[in-house]
Design a protein that fits this description.
Organism: Filobasidium floriforme
GO molecular function: FMN binding; NAD(P)H dehydrogenase (quinone) activity
Bound molecules: flavin mononucleotide
Pfam families: FMN_red
Number of helices: 8
Protein name: Flavodoxin-like domain-containing protein
Strand content: 15-25%
Family: Belongs to the WrbA family.
CATH architecture: 3-Layer(aba) Sandwich
CATH topology: Rossmann fold
């Protein structure tokens, strides 16, 4: 059976949405069954309007529910940074997963993270790092990206991404768009994650 993997993202201005589709392309190369989800917006239309946002109120993909997690072998979570950590929308989603925690429903599953920051040093690593407690308490293994992708060692230009996970840099006004290198790192992360989870799923079938 192919591994079932969810790409689960929240995006206020669309950058992470673009990364999510590049991640999806990488996962699909591995033969995984990929499901795309978005995380429920929690801000009001009025607040989003003041932030010059609103796209998250019209999601392109189904909104993830806690029970969807049970059906998946692995999850790649994407979200922009907020003060160097995950947005409240992500916390609000995990706050609904207490029932899954109580029954140990997610033990043995896998997760990775990709993100977007406004600035080059705005917290790509801290955003992934401070998300790990959600995974640890659920018994989910965090799968890092590592440094094997050459795009992570580029020094002659500004590129997002870290061994913690793929990333883009949106710019202070959100005008910078994901570069080819950043998107290729996303695809690489999807492919590596898909192989990792797929190997586990096949191994479990043999056990
Ligand atoms: C409340 C708030 C806090 C933010 N905090 C940070 C931050 O700590 N570091 C940073 O680089 N960018 C920060 N940003 C910028 C966002 O990360 C940026 O808008 C986002 O990466 C764009 O991704 P999206 O288009 O997928 O929403 C913040 C934005 C908001 C609205």
């Amino acid at each position: 059976m192919p591994a079932k993997i969810g790409v689960i993202y929240y995006s206020t201005y669309g950058h992470v949405g673009q990364l999510a589709e590049a991640v999806q392309a990488g996962l699909e190369k591995t033969g995984a069954e990929v499901k795309m989800f978005q995380i429920q917006e929690t801000l009001s239309e009025e607040v989003l309007g003041k932030m010059y946002a609103g796209g998250s109120l019209k999601p392109k993909y189904p909104i993830i529910t806690p029970n969807d997690l049970k059906e998946l072998d692995g999850f790649l979570f994407g979200f922009p940074t907020r003060y160097g950590r995950a947005p409240a929308q992500v916390s609000a989603f995990f706050d609904q997963t207490g029932g899954l925690w109580a029954s140990g429903a997610l033990i043995g599953k896998f997760a990775g993270v990709f993100t977007s920051t406004g600035g080059q040093h705005g917290g790509q690593e801290t955003t992934a790092y401070t998300t790990i407690p959600f995974f640890v308490h659920h018994g989910i293994s965090f799968v890092p990206l590592g440094y094997a992708n050459a795009g992570l060692s580029v020094l002659d230009r500004v590129e997002g991404g870290a061994p913690w996970g793929a990333a883009t840099i949106a710019g202070g006004d959100g005008s910078r768009q994901p570069t080819e290198t950043e998107l290729s790192i996303c695809t690489y992360q999807g492919e590596e994650f898909g192989k990792h989870v797929g190997t586990f799923v096949r191994g479990k079938e043999l056990a």
